[in-house]
Amino acid sequence: xxxxxxxxxxxxxxxxxxxxxxxxxxxxxxxxxxxxxxxxxxxxxxxxxxxxxxxxxxxxxxxxxxxxxxxxxxxxxxxxxxxxxxxxxxxxxxxxxxxxxxxxxxxxxxxxxxxxxxxxxxxxxxxxxxxxxxxxxxxxxxxxxxxxxxxxxxxxxxxxxxxxxxxxxxxxxxxxxxxxxxxxxxxxxxxxxxxxxxxxxxxxxxxxxxxxxxxxxxxxxxxxxxxxxxxxxxxxxxxxxxxxxxxxxxxxxxxxxxxxxxxxxxxxxxxxxxxxxxxxxxxxxxxxxxxxxxxxxxxxxxxxxxxxxxxxxxxxxxxxxxxxxxxxxxxxxxxxxxxxxxxxxxxxxxxxxxxxxxxxxxxxxxxxxxxxxxxxxxxxxxxxxxxxxxxxxxxxxxxxxxxxxxxxxxxxxxxxxx
Length: 418
Fold this sequence. Notes:
The protein has 418 residues and is of the alpha/beta class. It contains twelve helices and 15 strands.
């Protein structure tokens, strides 16, 4: 008997993740001997950034101290919501630094990276035909996961001319009776925008008007430039429910440890049933990895010296990125205010999109960036995302290669940028 081909679920057809999908092509070229300059993924330890030593020592010591049958054993399952000492530390940080009122450990869940908290929150919220509003451009996890749970994508376009701030006319155009939530990524990935207090207050007004949950992705909240401050949107809400996602991956240089969380701010208790649905999903997956959770209190309440060390490096690399990209004819770039990404705009000949530009750039120069349409950019525009974590020498080499390639690319199509 001949076995029939196994057919995957249709819902996976819409799952894409441009940031990693493009690496497949890069690895193939690398295997053929081409030198690749990786400017595609926000993974600080890949470059010259290091996880703080006291955090590595913290979890190592917890593992060494583990004893079978004792309360110190970190090899066991733990509470599905996360260990108590870690949730208390996250609640303390939410009240003290993020200024979110009335948060206790019972308002916190710990997840395997912020992405798991995000995915579970989506899974517990949408029914087939429901939609969640997502920023465009925005982090592709949302657009990849919402269809998995039979939700519909409902993008709202950010305003590039106003520094990638939120365009409220766009919000009112997009919302409908099946909209359940709005995603706010602040600081934004991929644009580096940091939202103003006025913008965040307007989001709250909008969510209140349409009875929406705000899903606030604030994973980069400690990585800001030019003495800017981050405002947590939940700190401004006295009624609208907000789930704030955070973690240790970016701020504490440890993405591979997969330590994330969600903070529930629900002043009027309108999320009680939704919370229980999330708790059901948490219990069904047992727990997030136990040992790493012991880093959380040490990270949030311990020394923050590493931020003072990495800030000058990131500032310098941000400035180099902004200056060198804007010096290239046909390319313009809004100055990033947070995180470690830039999202330059590229003028393109008619019939050519940014994916073609990026793939040609990779093949001819070895410079790996991510095409803008992978982040849900506005139709008819061309962009690409750059990660400016690499050292200055690598960045300078990459930007010079981009400049020369772009010049030749335009010649190939007999195109003159405006």
